[in-house]
Amino acid sequence: MIALRPDQYAALAAMAETEAGLHMPPAKRTFVTSRLQRRLRRTGLADFDAYLGLLNANDAAGRAERRHFVSALTTNVTGIYREPHHFDLLADRLRAHLSVGRHPRFRVWSAGCSTGEEPLSIAAVCRTHLGPMWAHRCEILATDVDAEVIEAAGNRTPDAALMAALSRGPVPGDADPAVGTPERLFASLQSGIRYTVHNLLHPLEETLGFDAIFCRNVTIYFSPPAQTRVHANLRAQLRPGGLLALGHSERLRDGAGDLRPVGRTAFQRTGARDLPSKATA
C-alpha cells in the first residue's frame, strides 16, 4: 500500500471539501488511504504527490480524475423502500396533491440517489396511485455527485432480487394485467425518472420546485458549513406544502424555519394544505 503523509492527506481533505463538501477529519486518513489505492493503480502514478498534481490539473484529465476521486470517497448505501415511513408520507402527500383538482405535475427530487433504488421506490408509490400512465402526471429527478453510480442507475436492468424487493412494497403484482412482465414493469418505473449528475453544494438548475424532496443519509458526510448550504438549497426547491425527508441521523442545520415536523426526520413546508393527520402519527 502506498503511504499517505499527513500533509498529503490535508491537501486531499481540502480537495474533497471543495469538490463535494465531504468532511474528512484526521481520523479518516486510513480509510482514505485505502480507498485511493485503486485510483493510483488506475492512473499509474507512483505516489500521492503525483496524484495531487493530477487532481489539481486544470485540464480534461484533471476534471475527470476529480470525479473519480469523489466517487472513490463516497459510500453508496441504499435499498428499495429504505426507511419505509417516508414512503407512507410520500403517498399521503401525493393523495393530498391529487385531491386539490387542477394542479401541476407532481414533482419529486431524489437527491443523492446512488444506484437508483430510492427513485425506483418513489416511482412505485406514484405508479400505485396514478396507474400505468403515472409518468404523464409525475416526474422524478434523481441526482448524485458520483457520475459512475448515475450511469449505473440509468442503465440498470431488472434482476430477480430487485423485482422481489419492489414487490414487497406498494407496486402492483404480476396478477395485474396492466403490469405484464417484470421487464415491462421496470421500464414503466424508469420511464418517469430523469437521472443526472449534480453536486448538492450548488443550486439546482430547476425553477418549478418540488412537491417532495428525499435527501437521506447524504449530508452526514459533509462539514457543518456544507450541511447548511445544502439544506438551504433544498429549502429553495421545496414548494409550499412540500415534503422534505432526511436520513435517520440527520437534522436541519439552520433550524426548522418554515418547515414543520410531520414524522421521523420528515418535514412539510408551511403555506399550503397540511399532510393528512395520520402521517404525523
Q: What does this protein structure show overall?
A:
- The protein is an alpha/beta fold and 281 residues long.
- The protein folds into 2 domains: 6-73, Chemotaxis receptor methyltransferase CheR, N-terminal domain (Chemotaxis Receptor Methyltransferase Cher, domain 1, Orthogonal Bundle), CATH 1.10.155; 85-280, Vaccinia Virus protein VP39 (Rossmann fold, 3-Layer(aba) Sandwich).
- It is 43% helix and 15% strand.
- It contains 10 helices and 7 strands.
- The protein has helices spanning 6-20, 29-43, 48-55, 60-73, 85-99, 117-130, 147-155, 160-167, 182-190, 224-237, and strands at residues 106-111, 138-144, 193-197, 210-215, 238-246, 259-263, 266-269.
- A 7-stranded mixed sheet has the order 3-2-1-4-5-7-6.
- Strand 1, helix 6 (117-130) and strand 2 form a beta-alpha-beta unit.
- The longest helix has 15 residues, at 6-20.
- It starts with 5 loop residues before the first helix and ends in a 12-residue tail after the last strand.
- Mean pLDDT is 87; it is low at 273-281.
